[in-house]
Design goal:
The structure holds 2 protein chains of 2 kinds.
Chain A (H helix, E strand, L loop, with lengths): L13 H38 L2 E2 L7 E2 L3 H7 L2 H31 L7 H8 L1 H4 L2 H12 L5 H10 L12 H26 L4 H8 L4 H29 L3 H6 L11 H11 L3 H25 L5
Helix pairs in contact in A: 3-8, 3-10, 8-10, 9-10, 10-13, 12-13
Chain B lengths: L1 H12 L9 E7 L5 H15 L2 E7 L1 H14 L6 E5 L3 H6 L19 H5 L2 E2 L17 E2 L1 E5 L2 E7 L11 H11 L17 H13 L16 H12 L13 H9 L5 E5 L3 H4 L11 E4 L9 E3 L2 E5 L6 H11 L2 H9 L7 H4 L2 H6 L3 H9 L1 E2 L7 H18 L3 H18 L6
Helix pairs in contact in B: 7-8, 7-16, 16-17
The chains are: A mainly alpha, B alpha/beta.
Chain lengths: 303, 422
């Protein structure tokens, strides 16, 4: 090419240079934080994915086994059972917490004497460490000296071993979760209710609508974005329940309360099957992501 | 100024210098049996040697996880790992521990042999895990720290003729004297799934002549003797508090110390509490012995071990601690302060035996003690067996069916892990 024909770039005007810098500045400012966030989220996740493709044998370096761990997972009855248990736990606990939380929020939304004390005392369970919650409830459920057994014995004349019953242990854990986390639902929903505009409610009352109609046709639809967020947060948290199960039942009796996180923990850290444990964790993560995506899709436009 | 900087750097690194012998960091699980060591003997060690000590502890599972991470990443956060003896195969096998032999430690003849043997890897006797050279020399990787094991605790007001000699006697007394209406039970056990129920059953299994593994790691915990042992274990249920299937050692111990049970096999950590009026309603009413015999008389070992981390910043200091703590004079004072020693001379000291009246029984238990199988895969097998034992306890029967189910699952697992007869 003839060099004389080459177009010479005009020198950049100072204003243009400043404009480009102004465009890059936010990126430059955000970059360290973004890189840090990536480092603490994506890197461990990537490491877990790599680990899930390996097998660890005592005294030998990790061996790459491809998708073998995932194939084994497909035939692992215990893992499938633990996923089922987790699902039952999540759905039941979240639903009950939502209903109770909403009832409490509706009940306590208006001004009343001692409301500060009552509202504060309601959120106490949420402030207790989950391990302590587990210990408290283990005593309550104790067959020999526990409150539940005492109450049942008073009525029926027979003591009851809640945590050593294959049918009662999981519901007992769900009750503990409801006790601990209903206050969270209550707080979120109360904040949502109190932030709703009052005009539609006043108009409805003037039109003669009763409390039930107002609740069903105004409160619930207007509260829908808050409800979705609250349900989502609680469900995701319930999916990863660990502490209470660990303290109360260790997954027993038998495998009646063996939730997925407990199984992952045992596989990786007690049995040192790090690769297999990582493949379980990644599978659970994918399932949780699918669940979140499904909920988000179902309620698209409302959140 | 440069000198000051060098001094500061060596201080941060925890390395020994001429004036300051540096620091050693212990990582441990929390356990009351370690209190005397922490409160009395570590300060003494600091005074004697000029080496500072730091004690970092967590709950049992939490510490296990931390120690694994430290070993794997070679982070060097700890100099000494306090371990359950069950961890030695895993930590030594994965090279997380320093070879104490190579560091120049010489074990003398005063060590209780059964206690010292648990620190060797590969094990000195018995089966060797696949992947371990059958001819490889056993190397010392850890020393005992506390001689923990399960011994028989029995009420001397119930067993007035002395300790029960057979398991049949335990059942007979339970039958005759249990009174659930007054919350008086003949026996109490840890029934929660996993490690607790397996440890409870372990003693009976061996007493009835059973084993966990046969030749070439063949699973034999569903043998005739094993089934008989489990059936016996289940027969005791009628004379136990309700809900033992959810009992761990805290509830088991509380039942005995509240005067609600006549006997139990429990860990040595409970011995000191039996005579403490603040914790026990049966002060001086509990005696100790080796668990009864059926075919054999055995105790279950579960010693606390101390190993030097392969990545320890101050290996010399850590080794000095092990040498110091295992010296006869320190062990003697440890026993006289109520600690459970691991040196024969300390067990034989009159003053120590008077202070801790359970020492004789513990020494007898050490002589007939059986540890958990020496494989890093035992935890998985224990979980499988523990789940089925717990189910048998809930159903109060079907011993053979549950042991067969556990054996089949354990066999499949071991096969996948490369065991010859898995």
């Amino acid at each position: 090419m003839d060099s004389s024909l080459e177009l010479k770039r005009p020198p950049e005007a100072p204003l243009l240079r400043r404009h480009r810098w102004a465009r890059l500045l936010p990126v430059a400012l955000v970059a360290p934080t973004a890189l840090f966030a990536l480092a603490i989220t994506v890197l461990p996740l990537g490491y877990s994915v790599v680990t899930s493709l390996q097998e660890f044998r005592l005294g030998q370096p990790p061996a790459f086994v491809g998708l073998q761990n995932y194939q084994n997972l497909l035939h692992d009855v215990n893992f499938k059972n633990s996923l089922g248990t987790t699902l039952v736990f999540t759905i039941t606990a979240t639903a009950a917490e939502f209903v109770l939380g909403l009832m409490l929020a509706m009940l306590l939304k208006d001004e009343f004497p001692f409301q500060g004390i009552i509202r504060s005392s309601l959120i106490v369970p949420m402030a207790i460490a989950p391990v302590v919650v587990g210990i408290i409830w283990r005593l309550l459920y104790n067959a020999d000296v526990g409150l539940f057994s005492f109450a049942v014995q008073t009525v029926t004349g027979k003591s009851i071993s809640v945590l050593s019953s294959a049918t009662l242990a999981l519901p007992a854990l769900i009750v503990v979760d409801i006790w601990e986390w209903t206050p969270f639902m209550f707080l979120l929903l109360l904040a949502g209710i109190q932030s709703l505009p009052q005009e539609p409610f006043e108009a409805a009352r003037m039109d003669g609508a009763g409390p039930w109609n107002i609740f069903v046709h105004l409160t619930l639809p207007m509260l829908r974005p808050v409800i979705v967020v609250a349900l989502m947060i609680r469900a995701l948290d319930a999916f990863t329940v660990f502490d209470q199960v660990f303290v109360l039942t260790q997954g027993g009796p038998g495998t009646a309360t063996e939730v997925a996180t407990l199984m992952i923990y045992k596989t990786a850290f007690r049995f040192s099957q790090f690769g297999y444990g990582a493949s379980m964790a990644i599978t659970l993560l994918i399932l949780v992501m699918v669940f979140s995506a499904a909920v988000t899709r179902a309620f698209r436009g409302t959140v | 100024m440069a000198g000051g900087a060098v001094g500061a750097l060596s201080h941060c690194g925890g390395n020994a210098t001429s004036n300051n012998r540096g620091q050693i960091t212990f990582g441990s699980y929390a356990d009351p049996a370690l209190d005397i060591l922490k409160e009395v003997f570590l300060p003494e060690f600091e005074r004697d040697t000029g080496i500072r000590t730091e004690w970092v502890e967590a709950d049992f599972s939490g510490w296990f996880q931390k120690a694994l991470n430290d070993g794997q990443t070679r982070a060097g956060a700890f100099d000494i790992y306090v371990m359950d003896d069950l961890w030695v195969p895993r930590f030594a096998g994965a090279s997380y521990l320093a070879n104490i032999d190579e560091l120049g430690f010489q074990a003398d003849q005063d060590f209780v042999p059964a206690a010292l043997d648990l620190g060797f890897w590969p094990p000195k006797t018995g089966l060797r895990q696949p992947g371990i050279d059958p001819k490889a020399r056993s190397v010392l990787y850890a020393l005992p720290l506390i001689s923990d094991l399960q011994l028989l605790f029995y009420r001397n007001d119930i067993y007035s003729q002395g300790s029960p000699k057979t398991w049949g006697e335990i059942l007979q007394v339970a039958r005759e004297r249990s009174d659930p209406a007054r919350r008086q039970y003949g026996w109490v056990t840890r029934g929660v799934k996993g490690n607790p129920i397996v440890n409870s059953y372990f003693v009976l299994l061996h007493a009835f002549g059973g084993e966990m593994f046969g030749e070439s790691w063949k699973v034999v915990f569903n043998s005739l003797q094993a089934v008989e042992a489990l059936e016996f274990y289940l027969s005791l249920l009628a004379y136990e508090p309700p809900g033992v299937a959810e009992f761990d050692s805290d509830q088991e111990g509380a039942t005995l110390l509240q005067g609600n049970a006549f006997a139990a096999t429990m860990w040595t950590g409970w011995c000191g509490q039996t005579d403490d009026p603040a914790r026990s309603r049966v002060v001086n009413k509990i005696n100790f012995d080796v668990p009864p015999k059926q075919v054999k008389q055995v105790a279950k070992l579960g010693l606390f071990m101390a190993g030097i981390a392969a990545s320890a910043p101050n290996k010399a200091g850590a080794q000095e601690f092990l040498k110091w703590f295992s010296s006869p004079s320190v062990q003697l004072r440890f026993a006289r302060n109520g600690g459970i020693p691991f040196k024969l001379s300390a067990f034989q000291d009159e003053e120590a035996r008077k202070k801790s009246r359970w020492l004789d029984a513990i020494l007898k238990c050490l002589a007939c003690g059986v540890p958990s199988p020496r494989t890093s895969d035992w935890s998985k097998v224990e979980d499988i067996l523990g789940t089925e034992l717990n189910r048998a306890l809930l159903e109060r029967g079907k011993a053979k069916q549950h042991l067969d189910a556990a054996a089949a699952e354990a066999t499949a697992f071991l096969k996948g892990a490369g065991y010859p007869s898995g």
